[in-house]
Amino acid sequence: xxxxxxxxxxxxxxxxxxxxxxxxxxxxxxxxxxxxxxxxxxxxxxxxxxxxxxxxxxxxxxxxxxxxxxxxxxxxxxxxxxxxxxxxxxxxxxxxxxxxxxxxxxxxxxxxxxxxxxxxxxxxxxxxxxxxxxxxxxxxxxxxxxxxxxxxxxxxxxxxxxxxxxxxxxxxxxxxxxxxxxxxxxxxxxxxxxxxxxxxxxxxxxxxxxxxxxxxxxxxxxxxxxxxxxxxxxxxxxxxxxxxxxxxxxxxxxxxxxxxxxxxxxxxxxxxxxxxxxxxxxx
Length: 283
Known about the structure:
This protein has helices at residues 3-46, 49-56, 67-88, 95-134, 141-164, 167-191, 195-241, 260-279.
């Protein structure tokens, strides 16, 4: 056989073996990834992870998937990515393997960013509930709670973007632009023609704060009076349960209930006195 043809056939056989090994790794890895993803989904569902996500409000971000199903899908795709890395590494150093290596090295940062975002959303929802319930008697309570919620989520998004390495290219210019705009408005407005309107707004704001302070004070006093009245009523009820009401004119209630023997002796004495009164004086 021609040596050139023999070398060509050997090279083709070598490439065919690599292709078969790559295909086998892909098939086995796909089966394992699918099985593990399904197990993660079922395990989290049994651990009531979906209920926890519903209470924290994270189920609104999962789309058509359940929270446990979304985590299972993420695990499935992560294992599939590792499978691709292992399969293409059969061919030696190549651009596809280098790209997959970079993506895999970036995955831990993405996971940390997702955790930061989830924690920020949970904290924001809790703060919103606390502020809304604490200021439920006031018209601005829900607005204050919503502002605090949005601010916490914004900080969480900035931290998450910083974790994945895009904060310096996206968030920083946006933050600088927003702060510069606010500073320009304050400098031009407050230092220029908005002095009189700002003074009027500050006076209205201070008057509103004073009115709300008075309202809060009255509300606290009313709550304290209601609590004292409730404690007094409870003490009166407890005291009334241990008192004996007067049954005859001129008789006062007693703080201690008499025993059965004392009550019987008292009734006997009254009956004897009444009998003597009916008999009249002896002759």
